[in-house]
């Protein structure tokens, strides 16, 4: 079966596998590039990588409206419960869990994780999804780290990497990340949402394809690819 992956800009994706919808980092209402509305998005599971507002986004109202399970680190899971979200599952770095649609493991990410109200949000994370026979690594917000090589050893079909600079890896370090991970395919994210993270993803794609065997797909907000 094919996995459908739609990019809603920034770090937000909707992954559809069979009838299951996985929503990642739903930064929708305050996101100037997001092509969908928070009260129209459907999800069965919501993943929150860290506590920052551009990742927690609309996860609380979407979870309450849809009943979707929120999956995050333990600290953010506690915060979600305090916000009245009833269906949650805590994970932590290096740990994975099997759901009927597949597995997800939290990976390290070098970043911050304070929640919008200043609450402690634990350590930031990335996600390694194992869906059907595919492995998708969503790095979320992070700087470059050499252990990306360990993640790459699993054999990554799709790596979703920030290129925006300022808050995360910029284009140069994201290119080094591709060399460490050696994914079959790459999608750049976390750029152009704000003035300070303006980038040229097409120029980055050319560099990556000149220096690595990875295929780069530059997505437009709202676009869907199949894996
Ligand atoms: Ni962040
Ligand atoms: Mn961010």
Structure keywords:
Metallo-beta-lactamase, Chain A; binds nickel (II) ion; 227 residues; alpha/beta; binds manganese (II) ion
What does the secondary structure layout of this molecule look like, with pairings?
Elements: E1 3-7, E2 13-17, E3 20-24, E4 45-47, H1 53-56, H2 59-66, E5 69-73, H3 74-82, E6 88-91, E7 96-99, E8 102-108, E9 125-131, E10 134-138, H4 148-152, E11 158-162, H5 171-181, E12 185-189, H6 201-211, E13 215-216, E14 224-226
Helix pairs in contact: 5-6
Residues 50, 52, 55, 111, 141, 167 line the site of nickel (II) ion.
Account of the protein in words:
The protein is of the alpha/beta class and 227 residues long. The protein has one domain: Ribonuclease Z/Hydroxyacylglutathione hydrolase-like (Metallo-beta-lactamase, Chain A), CATH 3.60.15.10. It contains 6 helices and 14 strands. It has helices at 53-56, 59-66, 74-82, 148-152, 171-181, 201-211; strands at residues 3-7, 13-17, 20-24, 45-47, 69-73, 88-91, 96-99, 102-108, 125-131, 134-138, 158-162, 185-189, 215-216, 224-226. The strands form 2 sheets. Strands 6-5-4-3-2-1-14 form a 7-stranded mixed beta sheet, with helices on one face. Strands 7-8-9-10-11-12-13 form a 7-stranded mixed beta sheet. A hairpin with a 2-residue loop joins strand 9 (125-131) and strand 10. Helix 5 (171-181) packs parallel to helix 6. The longest helix has 11 residues, at 171-181. The chain binds nickel (II) ion and manganese (II) ion. Nickel (II) ion binds next to loops.
